[in-house]
Amino acid sequence: MEEKEKLVRETRSDAETESFAGELAAQAAPGTVICLDGDLGTGKTVFARGFARGLGITEPIVSPTFTILHGYEGGRLPLWHFDVYRIEEPEEMEEIGYEDCFYGDGVSLVEWASLVPEIIPEDAVRVTLRKDPEKGFDYRKITVEGFRGLAGAEDHAGKAQKG
Q: Rounded to an integer, what is the distance from CA 62 to the centroid of its chain?
């Protein structure tokens, strides 16, 4: 199996997390599925908000915890934001039409994707968010694996950190 490209970014505020997500969104292609995993409170929805802004979506972004899916249009690409924390069976995802989102002309962000591995495409991007209280309350370590535009994001990230 081919090893996927990997980028690790450390952020120290919601604004930095949003900015990084926006950099990735600027390079996202239609049909991209991004799996967001991390414990409660690690910034998955903050990442989603920054990603939406990077697509040019200006409406408020909230976690679809109880509705499972929020759709946002009006940006460069449609954004389908899933929170599958409360999904008990993969069939529930079929009922809401996840395939139309995953394989359509938008980008799908899936919070808690590790809970539904059987429906996640093999080429999905993996984003893991971790906290480290020893480095501060707002510290996040964000690991991105398998993003096709990763080299560009890494170049941009390096310039942003040096400036």
A: 13
d(Cα 160, Cα 163) in Å, to the nearest integer?
5
What is the rounded CA–CA span in Å between residue 154 and residue 42?
A: 22
Place of tokens 């934001």: 81
pLDDT average, residue stretch 146-158:
56
Does residue 1 have a pLDDT over 60?
A: no
Give the Cα separation of 41 and 44 in Å (integer): 8
Report the distance separating Cα 48 and Cα 157, nearest Å: 18
Tell me the whole-structure pTM to 2 decimals: 0.86
Domains of the chain in sequence order: 6-151 (3.40.50.300)
- List C-alpha distances in Å: 36 to 63, 113, 145, 147, 158: 12, 6, 11, 13, 23
The two beta strands, 125-130 and 140-145, are antiparallel
DSSP-assigned beta bridge partners for residue 77: none
Torsion of Cα atoms, 146 then 68 then 130 then 142, to 10°: 30
Whole-angstrom distance, CA of residue 148 vs CA of residue 125: 8
Question: What type of residue sits at position 159?
Answer: K
The answer to whether residues 68 and 83 touch, using CB atoms and an 8 Å cutoff, is: yes
